[in-house]
Amino acid sequence: MQALLSFDQAPPFGAPARFFLTAPLFAILAGLLLLWSGPGLFASRWTPEALALTHLITVGFMLQVMLGAMLQILPVVAGANMARPRLLATLVHLAITLGALLLAAGFLGLQPLAFRLAALFLGSGVALFVGSAGHALYGVPPSRATIRGLQISLLGLSVTVALGVLLAIALDGALDLPLPRVTSIHFSWGFVGWGLVLLAAVGFVVVPMFQMTPAYPAWFTHLLPWSALALLSLWSLAEAADWPAPSALLAGALLLITATFAVLTLHLQRRSKRARFDATQHYWRVGMLCTLAACTLWLVARGLPERMAALAERLEWLCGVLLLCGGFMSVIIGMLYKIFPFLVWLHLQNLGGGRVLAPNMNKVIAGQQIKRQMRAHFLALALLLAAVIWPEWFTYPAGIALLVANGALLRNLLAAVAFYRQQRTKIAALIAAATSSDGKPSLTSHPATKAPAP
Amino acid sequence: MIPYVELDRNQTYYLMFINAGRTATLDNASSQLMRFPMHEITDFMTRDHRLCDDCLVAVEQAIVNGAWELAGTEFIRFRDALLYHFLAEESVLFPRFEQRTGMSLGPTQVMRSEHVQMRQLLAAAEAALADRDADEYAGHAETLLIMMQQHNVKEENVLYPMCDQQLADQLLELLPELQKQLATGGKVAA
């Protein structure tokens, strides 16, 4: 009989960790870009600097963390093992990191070559990841809404990147495309098809789990991924065919789904059984409040008459900052503060082989440092929002705040890595010492470790 | 050696799930689909998971309020609830499952090893509580909570449904036995 289990197939710590550690570097670059370009960046949504900034956050920060996290959670949530995780992580990480840098460089220098190379790297990196994840997920019955959500979000990512590649090639006039329309389809798939669906799929599991809230209603968890996909597809068709009325109606429905997710999450959080809110819960709450605010502002912007186009443009800017920095970044950082320390603990615990108890996960990153970083992030968010309205006053403070907040995030994650390395050495030494002294050591002999007599 | 019971498509998937991050192979998986799904074991054991969660929260609440005496009594309730839950699984549910399926090195083995880790965390939390060290307690409790939750997800979605399917004919004797085992922990088992 073949052994049913082998215990060495979990993705190695370095596989997801490299994605998590690279993400803050891109947000730091975004801060530097604000300082370098100055208030002119906020002149319009379409300035090269604004586009570079957006992609440093979406491709540089969000995509990094989301792919790293998926590498880790696919086996746990869906039982889907990705083949050769270390090699896959190396290749995908390299491709999307280079791709994000080239893309930002392309926008800033308007270099067709940089765009083409960025398209090549991002396209191939994401294709490799989606292919590998799709292969692992193939045939897994979607018994739970989360698994379906993960599958649909991968589809959403593919559409987003495919349209992005198309745009990168079309920018220098090589293809005759209605650029603004394709762009709006591109970022809607990114926001909803990839971002929201993935965030919700993960949230359905982790919000009740970490915050001890009741579960999301089953009908909603099943409805969200499918309806998002269907509405997004129909909306794209309406948009491409230039049918304003159906397009507005479908966009409104997408907005409703997004807002419902935010309201439900806030409602569940209020029923959390935890005695006090930790950083992750605060991050989730702010993230959901920002999402709601963005939905509201978007509706207002859509309702404004033509002569107030300038105001509508500012409101769209605010929506962008609220969604990216306030919504996605907040929730992502909040979850990193749970995932990263738990992974450190789990890997140390496995190294100890059950004979040594690893230091608990709250020791991995100091709580005080997490709180400070969180305040810096919220300050950066507030200053960025102010910079949209008063660029001359707030662009530089916002740039500095973004730099500081993400410098602190990087520092916290590096502290966790240092902790991991230090404890790994310590545990190896402890085991070696214990094994040489009495052969079979047991470092925990507390009564509660034993099962009570039946 | 006890021969394999034929496993269906769902179970093959369940095994992959249980062995998250590890390799599971089954050489005699067939593609029959479950016809009459039963939920008795899943429902019963899931209720007990929630009860353990509530007990852990009660300790946290007491510590935040500075009520150390109360925290001590609540912790004992929690500890007993958790340990008797493990015991009910290890002495009643898992052996029957292993006997029926012939898989003593399968998912139950993974669950047992996670029980060991959780017993260690429980001991560490108890020691911190005895020292009235709120930070130390919070750290161990938080780690234990995440460990418990990811363990519960695997059991509730994978192992218990497998038990429901494999042990359907033993329900009449199995449920009272589980109930008795859990009730020993001083809980009101529904």
UniProtKB/TrEMBL annotation, chain A:
Keywords assigned by UniProt, alphabetized: Membrane, Transmembrane, Transmembrane helix
Keyword Membrane: yes
Annotated TM spans: 20-38, 50-75, 87-108, 114-140, 152-171, 191-210, 217-237, 249-270, 282-301, 321-346, 376-394, 400-420
Name the UniProt record assigns to this protein: Transmembrane protein
Protein's organism: Candidatus Accumulibacter aalborgensis
Origin organism lineage: Bacteria, Pseudomonadati, Pseudomonadota, Betaproteobacteria, Candidatus Accumulibacter
TrEMBL record, chain B:
Record PANTHER family: BLL2471 PROTEIN-RELATED, DUF438 DOMAIN-CONTAINING PROTEIN
Domain of life the protein comes from: Bacteria
Name of the protein: Hemerythrin HHE cation binding domain protein (Modular protein)
A Pfam family matched in the record: Hemerythrin
Residues of the Hemerythrin-like domain: 41-163
One GO CC annotation: plasma membrane
